[in-house]
Amino acid sequence: MNNKQRWMGGVVLLGGGVLLAALLLKGKEEIHQNQSQTPEMAQVEQQGQGAGKMSSLTVDVETEKRLLEEQRRTREKSVAEQEARAAEFLAMQQQAEADAARKAAEEYAALNAHRSAQQSSDNIPPELVEDEKAKQKRLAEDKLAAQKKLETQSAQQKADQARIAADKQKAEAKRKADAQKEAERKAHAEAEKKAADKKAAEAKQQAEEKRKAEEKHKAEEKRKAEAKKKAEAEKARDLLENGDKQWMVQVALAANEANADAVAAKLRAKGYKVTKSPTSKGIRIMVGPSKDRDAADATRKKINSDASLNMKSAWVIDWVPLDKR
């Protein structure tokens, strides 16, 4: 019976060691998964930051980053809780093993004491056999309960991992949809910009063509005006040189119309035919016309010698009327 108890105690210790090793391995796998997920999250954030350098970050991208950060903290909290539960289960397992070892030692001591009292090492009382069966049954029930608890924790952990994976997949799908939407928005904005630039270029070209046409028209008008002015000057010079000239005696150059009328009245009172012609410097008062220069010069001398007129600065000119210029 002593060997059987030792064998049962070894089985309990072995089972507890196996459970402890399984928990440690599962905890390491979870830590490794969290570490491998952390670079992925960092990569997602870096991708989000890269997109932000190309254009200003939108509110949706900031919200997505905040959600991803909350999911990362939730996963870390879940892993911490699982590690705490594993530590708690390990402590419970160690306590159960210690209690089992203590009870086995107590029962072994009681059995030895009973054997010493009966002075028999071959026969075991029926009540002790019954107690051993109850103990084995209790240990089996404790082991089954611990296994069920471990399975429950494993199922909960798998459910958490599945939820985290689903959230990650959903976040990735949303990120891709937002990226596609942003790309479409940029493409639309680029197309609008190109259309606006093209329209502005066409308007600028039309304005330039209009300006050139106006400049050409102005240059043509200016050329025509200069040609007309030149032709008129040529005509006037030709009239002066070769036209029908009239010899006149210019007696004065009045500053205004009143002075010109006064001088003309004095001349007309003496019987002279008077002609007034406006110039840029004043109003020219002339007597004539005469049939030739000699007749005009004779008239000039007569006017200069008339003291009542007091016009001693008269001179002869060859004059062309305005209607013949």
Count the beta strands: 4
Can you list the strand order of the major beta sheet? 2-3-1-4
Number of domains: 2
β-sheet strand percentage: 5-15%
Main beta sheet strand tally, sense and closure: 4 strands, antiparallel
Low-confidence stretches at least 5 residues in length (pLDDT < 50)?
38-42, 50-54
State the distance separating the first and last CA atoms: 158 Å
| Element order: H for helix, E for strand | HHHEHEEHE
Name the structural class: alpha+beta
Radius of gyration computed on alpha carbons: 64 Å
Average pLDDT, rounded to a whole number, is 79
- SS element count, helices: 5
Q: What's the helical proportion of residues?
A: over 70%
Envelope shape = rod-shaped
Biased composition (Polar residues): 34-48
Protein name: Cell division protein
Organism: Acinetobacter amyesii
Biased composition (Basic and acidic residues): 131-151, 165-237
Describe the fold and architecture.
It contains 5 helices and 4 strands. With 325 residues, the chain is α+β, with helices and mostly antiparallel strands. It folds into 2 domains: 192 residues; 81 residues, 2-Layer Sandwich (Alpha-Beta Plaits), CATH 3.30.70. Strand 2 and strand 3 form a beta hairpin. Helix 1 runs antiparallel to helix 2 and helix 1 runs parallel beside helix 3. The longest helix has 117 residues. This is Cell division protein. One of its GO terms (molecular function) is peptidoglycan binding.
